[in-house]
TrEMBL record:
UniProt entry keywords in alphabetical sequence: GTP-binding, Nucleotide-binding
Domain of life the protein comes from: Bacteria
Keyword Nucleotide-binding: yes
Protein name: Uncharacterized protein
Keyword GTP-binding attributed: yes
């Protein structure tokens, strides 16, 4: 398993986001070049709930990240890892719906 630190913004219902506040430990999908990969979002200040419409600093764990990366050749893996470098932008999904966006810290 590997993880990243990121700042995320949780979309509101009016922005077509999630319909309820998030809790630390929620498992959305991380959009990696069009592929959705399971992740776990952990809020870093100790809050249990994360109301919508705000930014949060989080740790994003990828419980199956190593297995996912192992399915690629070494040169492809290097290219994929660029998506986790500081400044890289990403989306979090539930199904096809984007519920948050963020940037790697």
């Amino acid at each position: 398993m590997f993880n990243i630190r990121a700042k995320i913004y949780l979309k509101t219902v009016e922005e077509d986001g999630h319909s309820t506040p998030w809790f630390s430990g929620i498992r959305p999908s991380f959009n990696l070049n069009g592929e959705l990969i399971t992740c776990v979002v952990i809020e870093l200040t100790g809050k249990e709930w994360m109301p919508l419409g705000h930014e949060y600093e989080v740790r994003i764990d990828f419980p199956y990240g190593d297995e996912y990366l192992d399915s690629f050749k070494p040169h492809e893996r290097e290219e994929i890892m660029k998506n986790f470098e500081p400044g890289a932008r990403f989306f979090l999904h539930v199904g096809a719906k984007i519920i948050a966006w963020g940037v790697v810290l």
